[in-house]
TrEMBL record:
InterPro entries: AAA_14, DUF4143, P-loop_NTPase. This is ATP-binding protein. It comes from Candidatus Pseudoramibacter fermentans. The lineage of its organism: Bacteria, Bacillati, Bacillota, Clostridia, Eubacteriales. The keyword ATP-binding applies. It comes from the Bacteria.
Length: 422
């Protein structure tokens, strides 16, 4: 490929990075490691690369050492595997010092992983991002032979969201009425709008999130997996959104979708859900009490970002509250958390984190007697029959207190405090 054209792309990218305002994120990088960043589209992967570049420059690197290429640039639409050699040659033309390669949205080039392996074997410094289902971190670890460390990048967590909005969460904020009020309001806004970094710049955040959703659905799921019946995929995602808070089997989803006149096979439903998980749109939760086969057949589904879920819901704050708790747990616990349900004991607990021995119920409010009795009694039954659970919690929108019943302690935690813990 023409070297001058590649240099133009690189130098223009330098200008973009120089002017970028970077908000602090909860990710750290080893200076001597190579990385591949995957995750939900528009979650901030490129901006993280910008922050790495800015740190390199601050630590003394020259801009000509930075070989940053965004493969979604239309000028690189004909870039092929063989052209990566030109990229290496350009780096030596720019500087005789150690280059740093940043390959953004590299999945646009077929066979890119061969180049990535070669560069790692040559002890070059390489950072890679990708968004679609072909860039799953687990798959990439196998294909790249352990040469790269992988990180899954997701939309803002609560602390990142507060930092981006310049809302303090220090001791003064946590112990003053004004500070607590701002934190409560921010947690509700995150619950409704989600945490896509760029959405903070939009007045109508729903329009931005809808655009992201369409790109994930039509691009990362339908196009990448050659799904022609997009209507069936759309309806399936809508029905899954309506099941938040409840476990549901493939068979039931098949009956629900086909019951409204959309003809789609059970095998297709299974495949579509897997594609949605691969695209980081959904994740699933298993029943800790169930046998392995049952865990696989009756999961609970959640959306990776609340803004995406809220596209499907009207006045469903209870579902949004549970989803944001689930998403926060996924970030902090990775895959090591479950729900608890036993017909034998009638226990029905929203979340259980084995490593922390923590059981969590989610309730919008427990001021109502029926809601109080339901949530508290479930946790009391759990304490009586499942001593492994040492910490018992109820996450509410904004209520906070300690309940004690015959030696059993139950913490009632407002959403903002729970999210700050995570």
């Amino acid at each position: 490929m023409n070297h001058e054209a590649i240099k133009q792309v690189i130098y223009e990218q330098h200008a973009i990075i120089r002017s970028a305002v970077i908000n602090e994120r909860a990710y750290t990088f080893e200076p001597n490691a190579n990385y591949i960043l995957t995750g939900l589209r528009r979650s901030g992967k490129s901006t993280l690369l910008f922050s790495i570049v800015q740190k390199l420059i601050a630590d003394g690197a020259d801009w000509n050492q930075i070989v940053y290429v965004n493969f979604e640039d239309e000028r690189l639409v004909e870039f092929e595997l063989a052209d990566f050699s030109d990229l290496v040659e350009v780096s030596s033309e720019l500087s005789d010092k150690t280059p740093y390669f940043f390959l953004d949205e590299v999945q646009c080039v077929d066979g890119w992983e061969r180049f990535a392996r070669r560069m790692a074997d040559a002890k070059e410094h390489v950072y890679i991002t990708g968004s679609n289902s072909k860039m799953l971190s687990s798959e990439m670890e196998a294909r790249l032979g352990g040469r790269y460390l992988s990180k899954v990048i997701m939309p803002y967590n609560f602390k990142e969201y507060l930092t981006a909005r310049q809302i303090p969460y220090n001791d003064e904020a946590l112990y003053t009425s004004k500070g607590i009020g701002r934190l409560k309001k921010a947690s509700e806004e995150l619950m409704h709008d989600g945490g896509f970094p760029e959405s903070l710049d939009f007045i109508d955040k729903r329009v931005y999130v809808e655009n992201v959703y369409q790109k994930v659905l039509l691009g990362d799921i339908a196009l990448r997996n050659d799904i022609r019946k997009v209507t069936g995929l759309r309806i399936l995602m809508k029905k899954i959104a309506e099941t938040i808070c409840s476990e549901i089997s493939y068979s039931k989803l098949y009956r629900v979708v086909n019951g409204i006149g959309v003809k789609i096979s059970k095998d297709s439903i299974i495949s579509y859900i897997e594609y949605a998980k691969q695209a980081y749109l959904l994740f699933s939760l298993e029943n800790y009490f169930a046998k392995f086969t049952e865990r696989e057949s009756t999961p609970k589904y959640y959306f990776e970002d609340n803004g995406l879920l809220n596209l499907f819901l009207i006045n469903k704050d209870t579902a949004l509250l549970e989803n944001i708790v689930a998403a926060a747990l996924k970030r902090s616990c990775r895959e090591e958390f479950y729900y608890l349900k036993s017909e034998k004991t009638s226990i029905d607990i929203d979340f259980y984190v084995p490593e922390e021995a923590t059981a969590i119920q989610v309730a919008y409010s427990i001021l109502d007697t029926a809601a109080y009795d339901r949530e508290v009694n479930n946790l009391l039954k759990l304490a009586d029959s499942f001593p492994e659970a040492k910490r018992l919690c109820i996450v509410t929108l904004d209520e906070e207190k300690m309940i004690q019943h015959h030696g059993v302690k139950i913490e009632v935690i407002p959403l903002y405090r729970f999210l700050l813990e995570r």
